[in-house]
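Troubleshooting entry. The earlier prediction with flavin-adenine dinucleotide gave an output that would not parse, so I re-checked the input for stray whitespace and re-submitted. Clean input:
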Amino acid sequence: MAEILVLAEHDGETVKKGTCELLTLARRFGEPSVVWAGPGADGGRDRLAEFGAATVYVAAGEEFNDYVVAPKAELLASLVAEKSPAAVLVASTAEGREVAARLAVKTGSGLITDAVDLAEGLVAEQSIFGGAIIVQSRVKAGTPIVAVRPNAVAPQPAPGAAQAENVSVQASDGAKTAHVTERVVQERGERPELTEASIVVSGGRGVGSGDNFALIEKLADSLGAAVGASRAATDAGWYPHQFQVGQTGKTVSPQLYLAVGISGAIQHRAGMQTSKTIMVINKDPEAPIFELADFGIVGDLFQVVPQLTEEIQKRSAG
Ligand SMILES: Cc1cc2nc3c(=O)[nH]c(=O)nc-3n(C[C@H](O)[C@H](O)[C@H](O)COP(=O)(O)OP(=O)(O)OC[C@H]3O[C@@H](n4cnc5c(N)ncnc54)[C@H](O)[C@@H]3O)c2cc1C
């Protein structure tokens, strides 16, 4: 069976949900082998086995932590040369895309980023211009490298052996030119990470103030969701920029996206239009966001959101 390499995104202890999504996708086309760069693979193997990894190539050297992304690209390039996989899948995150681009140059391969699905023949689907156009494309040169958007595929367990195999690849001096000097763990409360969350509740200019974002947070907490914001809200200083969804913010693709007091500008859509189900709360029935909505409530968010939160809390308590 064809081998598909999947680059693990991990925190040194366990893999992120995006890696389980890539494994789910890889299983459609062959036997997934995970590439684990850096220490901590032992801790991550159970989860990798749960999602069908046949092999885990472990390159445990500290240099994969110490020198930004270049050593990871070298590691993957060496495995591509040695194993001739049918494809390499990475998460379409800032780091994943950079590793993928470097790998494409090193191996003379074609690269597709921001894929939201992969069909037979490794035909990748991308959703562009605010979801107005779906592009299908396939790599024609070298080993297909595809960066897949987090949350594009629902992770489904299927047992695998996750057999560990140590690989000894030394990073070149050229790959060690950008050294990580410090890591600061972002404080994150109880809410899920925005790009990994299954449910996202976002607030826009309609929310009216930073204080009013407490309404959005309460609704999000009742659903176990992450909080997002439109650029109008982050530019106004109502919510931190790291939570901005859209073209110049984060791209999310959750199972459920709730847009509250957001008009649906194309730049906002670009970051959320691949969400599986979209629900809108807006007082203007003509707001363009309703064009994307699976469910919509035309109403004042200050009336709708507290009632909705209360009802959800009642149901989850019952
Ligand atoms: C280069 C560029 C990049 C950009 N990148 C991004 C990006 O990454 N993300 C992003 O979001 N935007 C981005 N923008 C900005 C974008 O064009 C819009 O200006 C922005 O998305 C508007 O935010 P909004 O929908 O919250 O505000 P508005 O467009 O002002 O919409 C507010 C909505 O709230 C509704 N509303 C008001 N009061 C209530 C109420 N009480 N109850 C219910 N509904 C109410 C209104 O009917 C309206 O539809 C970018 C723009 C440019 C030029």
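This one parsed fine. The first helix runs from residue 17 to 26.
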